Amino acid sequence: AATVSLRSLRTFTSFKVPVFRLYYGAMLAQMAAMNMQMISKGLLVYRLTESASILGLMALANSLPMLFFSFYGGVLADRLRKKWVIFVGDLCYAAISLAVAVALVTGFLSADRPGSWVILLVYSLASGTIMGLMMPARQAVVAEIVNESQLMNALALNTLGMNLNRLIMPAAAGFMVEAFDFGATYFFMTGLYLLAATFVWLMPLKGHISLRGGGALADIKSGLKYVRHEPTILMILIVTLVIVVLSMPYMTLLPVFTEDILKVGAGGMGVLISISGIGAIVGSLVLASLPNKSRAMIMLIGSLVLGLALAGFSFTTQWRVARGMMVFVGLGQTARMTLSNTLLQYYVVDEYRGRVLSLYLMEFGLTSFAVFFAAVMTDVIGVQWAVGGLAIALVVFVVLVTLFSPRMRKLD
């Protein structure tokens, strides 16, 4: 009987490219540290301050720099070798993580020093700034590593790695905090960032520099002008933005569901996040196996599934139904994330790739405003209608785009 090897599967075809394997190792290490940071920083802030408001302030401090600096990150991605932008970014992440670790073990950051949580506020601002400047290059470099026919496969595998990290590393961070302490966790995160930088260092130089000379503001204006005159790119960005704004607030408001609606506590919340991760992993594997056809239509179908699943989750009080809905939430999120990224990178010209992806990555910053709106609405009409109402709006939006935008529907 014929045997099926890893190298013969279309699902993992991008791993045949040696440079992609190095890139993937760097991505896994960096995202592992980021997922550990998500849990450890939030828990540390709350233990230091016992203030939910300060938790919200930390999230805003992390998001706003991404919103502002992603423009400049796009210019850097087009002006410099992307490898060096990513390498320096990983080193900067390692430096600020090490600074927090040292502050913890020396007692400079502790509950005994009122106001020391400001160190973590500065850490959040610095982390958001680094992400805004670095992530356009990390996204854009994929198109320089693999060929055009492998692009969707590579981005799907990238999403798969992110989802595996999201499934495993938050729990690992919680275990390390309880078994050791926050200082040890931050030292471990520093090591992961340095490991990521090592993988990037080993990557050969690929691609080319699109911009030379000129000023950053002129380059940003040029990128915005390009998007304004490219209806396909503009349409993908707008559709993606609306889907993100309508779908993302559920994650931040998930504790309200688990505490007040489903009444399953912190353990139940962990189960829901893991189940969502399982759906996302399945979605990533399916997308990595698909041919390069009808990608916009698949993205719209995935977004419709996401909206319907979020609506079902929002209005149910049954634990079993909620778990089932979260599988499809993860599946739909992965389809939206992978295919919107793929479509942008497929249709953009190399000269503007970094700047266009910087606009795409601004969704991470804009999410904080959508969360704030949903949180305010939760206090007025309740969490079920706040999140469920946005989910219904998402379903209506996707249906309208599918019916009345043949240009979007027919994109491959």
Biggest beta-sheet profile? none
Structural class: mainly alpha
Low-confidence stretches: 1-8
* Terminus-to-terminus distance: 36 Å
Helix content estimate: over 70%
Q: Quaternary state, please? A: single chain
Mean pLDDT rating? 83
- The fraction of residues assigned to DSSP E strands is under 5%
Please report the number of helical segments: 18
The helix/strand series, from N terminus to C terminus, equals HHHHHHHHHHHHHHHHHH
Find the count of extended strands (DSSP E, 2+ residues).
0
User: How does the overall form come out from the CA principal axes?
Assistant: globular
Describe the protein's architecture and organization.
With 412 residues, this protein is mainly α. The protein is globular and about 60 Å long. Mean pLDDT is 83; it is low at 1-8. It has helices at 18-49, 52-79, 82-105, 118-140, 142-145, 151-179, 182-202, 216-228, 231-247, 249-252, 254-261, 265-289, 295-315, 319-347, 353-361, 363-381, 383-404, 406-409. The protein has 18 helices and no strands.
